[in-house]
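Hi,

Apologies if this is the wrong queue. I'm a grad student, and the batch job for Host specificity protein J from Achromobacter ruhlandii produced an output file that my downstream script rejects. I'm not sure whether the problem is my script or the file. Here is the sequence I used:
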Amino acid sequence: MKLRNRRKAPSGAFFYGRRPSVALHVIGHKGGKGGGGGSGPSEAPDSLHSIAYARVIDLLSEGEIYGPVHGLGGALRDVYLNGTPVANADGSLNFSNVSIDFRTGTQWQDPLPGFPASENTIGVNTELKATQPWVRLFTNRQLSAVRVTLAVEGLSKADTSNGDINGYRVEYAIDVSRDGGAYQQVLASAFDGKTTQRYARSHRIDLPAGAQQGWSVRVRRLTANANSNTIADRTFVDAVTEVIDAKLRYPMSAVVGIKIDASQFQSVPTRAYDMKGRIIRVPSNYDPETRAYIGTWDGTFKTAWTDNPARVFFDLVGNDRYGLGERVPAGWLDKWGLYQIGRYCDELVDDGFGGKEPRFTCNVYLQTTADAYRVVQDLASVFRGMAYWANSSVIAVADMPGDPVYTYSSANVIDGRFSYTGSALNTRYTVALVSWCDLTDMGRQKVEYVENREGIARYGIKQLEVTAFGCTSRGQANRVGKWLLLTSNLETRGVTFSVGLEQCQIRPGSIIRVADQHLAGRRIGGRIREATASRIVVDAELGIRPGDRLTVNLPSGKSETRVVSSAMGEPLTLDSGVYSYDSTALTWDLIGLPGTAMHIDVSTPFSEVPEPDCVWTLESEALSAQTFRVLSIKRKDGVLADISAIQHEPGKFNNVDFGTRLDRPPISVVPPGVQSPPTEPRISSYYIVSQGVANHFAVFEWTPPAVAVSYEVQWRRDNSDWIQLPPTGTTRVEVPNIYAGAYTFRVRAMNAMGIASIWATSSLTQLDGILGPPPRVTSLATTSLAFGVRLDWGLPPGPSIISRTELFYSRTPSFDDATPLGDFAYPQNTHTLMGLAAGVEFWFWARLVDKNGVVGEIYPSGVGIHGKASADADLILDYIAGQIKETHLYQALREKIDSAGETAVEVAALTSALAAMWTVKTQMTVDGKPYMAGIGVGVENDKGVVTSQVLLSAQRVAVLDESSGSLKTPFVVQGGQVFINQAFIGQASIGSAQIADVLRSDAVNPQGLPVLSLNMRSGVMSFNGTVSDGSRTEINNNGMRYYYPNGVLGARFGGG
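Support response: The file is valid. Your script probably expects a header line. Output copied below for reference.
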């Protein structure tokens, strides 16, 4: 279903509240007038002057609207041309010759003066030549006339005899043809005078009536083009305007007519208007200016301007011109619920800058047709709500404070079961970026940054980006962000349960109370055994205090809460006696004692007498029921339904609006709910001498709190980072081998439920200890391995408190590019880095770290120790061969074929959890000796190392190519050697090479000779220059020679 217009206004645009300043569509035209010419002794003054005006009608909105923010008297302050107001606050003008006329969009408004027609201007800008007339066809048979605008770029003639510059005359004519008939001349005129600037004039051409197909308009230049440097006479058809004569009222459309002196602008300026939007229906007891509600609302309406989002929602959904009124009449809207939402929107809250503002306002400009559901939900989002269809009504609900309308406990849900779910951690946002429109900056979009510092400390940065629909207040945008962050972090629990007829008392958006005795840790709800208006009897053993809150679902379906005044339990059996206790006779805190039945009195009678089996719930300062907001009610078989709801935290609203402290009521008494911290944290120290070395110890102690089972301890020295110690069950920990400095520690207690207390922090205490950081490693060396590098480092001698060695490596010799290689516990002093490509090189550094986390100096301090994976081909091939021999695939490939014949062929496949292999083997036995050839393909998992390989077993392996008609062998392996006829290698590492002929460079000089050439047979090395002169240098065993470009020997060193 789409929002649409039944009786559509010209543009379909409409807006509510105070409209952001934006440019609108142009539907106007411009015109001008001309004057006479003159002459002078040497150069005649310009006699043709053009004054052009832009006349524009802008359609602002569906009517009726309030109009300019400063009223019609100050309307020039609310009109912006190219972003600048026409008038300032003091009345001074930024533009001259600007006239404006508003129509607010009533049914019977007058036409705009100065706009007697509806016009459409079409730019042409075509030069008009005597040899080529300009012609245009008009097929709109509603046209009354066309306006042709002609222009000259300049008009003058120079007298070649004396140099005087005078005026000139260019004649032209305009013809009209109807329905393709003969042209009739309707105008003959001329540009006659002198001008050095562009001059334009317009002619209205009335079109003859009775056209069936349309009209053709032709413009002819009668004066031949001069085509001379002494005459300026270029003429142009500048524009043509289609005109329909009519004084239009634009009923129910807010429009503004504006006339602008075009000399102040290069083109028609953009327009923007600061307006108050539609006048809509509001409650009859509501004052939109003061946002006050007088008395009780009787359900009737009046019309007024307002930016209250609930009223905007009511108008848009119920309007039959541009809303959903045809499908959803106003009588189908829940006007009473919207009335309560509207009052909540109008309450004043802090704006964040020392002032007050309404909680929610809606200033939105709707210009296009959109999906109805999306627009309605976007509007509802302004007041933190949603809309849905139920019981033949459109119902809007908002996330705002409210009392639970019904109570559910294990006594009135199916099987007494509540199922809970928690929100994902990635939906618990800690930073919100809220986009809003700033009316003080032409309605441009701004972004408000909102953060939850407690959430950031717990979850890190989890960013949410949202657009606040219809929001033009920074304070409101900030509250939107705070609400989103609090909601995602506090309302993390969802609940589902099944009920019978109790579903009839709620609907989506309702707040409910859930008394789940399993989560609470004790029974807090059930059904009434008998009752009066001020007393109920329940079959439960409860401990009740005066002031506790008793909630009952009454027979009418209402849920009412009353304060407990007294309670009495009976019968109670002690020492074989039966006693009855009255709460007025007890002096300790419990006034109701366990028994088989409890008589509970309330301070104020219920509005109706509860009936037996009505559901009750008991709450206190120590234990409260949970509150949830209903999301959905899904019907099942018969009268059953599944209810889904989300956690509701009523304290968040005052926190969002006023920054008040957020206290969450306890919902469980499973001990303990809060863990007390340790007390009296204190620091001391001592030292012992071992092997001539003094070892200093720090001692951290504290006094334990109740029910703590373990402690977490952190310490630091001289304001460094906190160092975590292992959890402990004692109240004293020691840190050995400390350095001298100022120490502090903190400790928190943990209980059996894993609940942690707040930190208890000691005072800063100066302790004696080691005076310096750990020493450097004594050496660091590398050894090349096949596909790896081994590192060995030296540790300093003597007693020490070294904890580990940190190694770093880099592809460059600079430590600035290094990354950690790993930590190696003391006294390990070697490490092998495997899995490298052959010939790969690194640079390495090392440093020591002591048991206190203090790091020593980097070794070496400059360029790192160089290490390189071996490039020795023999070593690498032996290493690979050894690995191949260990694989199952090799062993399967080398197994002899069990055959009685002299020849055999075997194809085998093996799959298991650790290997997949396929082999093809051929075998021939000659003189009792088997000869084999085979191919093996396999993948194996050897202790977590997966290897895939293809193995060939044969005395000769060759690649054959017969594409040229003869047999060629480009690649052969035989006798432990590889023969390659020709190869292209991107990069090669060669241990040693034996070259039989010539080694030359790929690059050549302009003569086509290689830049570098080494003849292995003659022993001559040649250097041929890269420039085009052809010079070269040769070196042999006798010496060196240099040749000029012409081949003449230029220099010689040595003999020969």
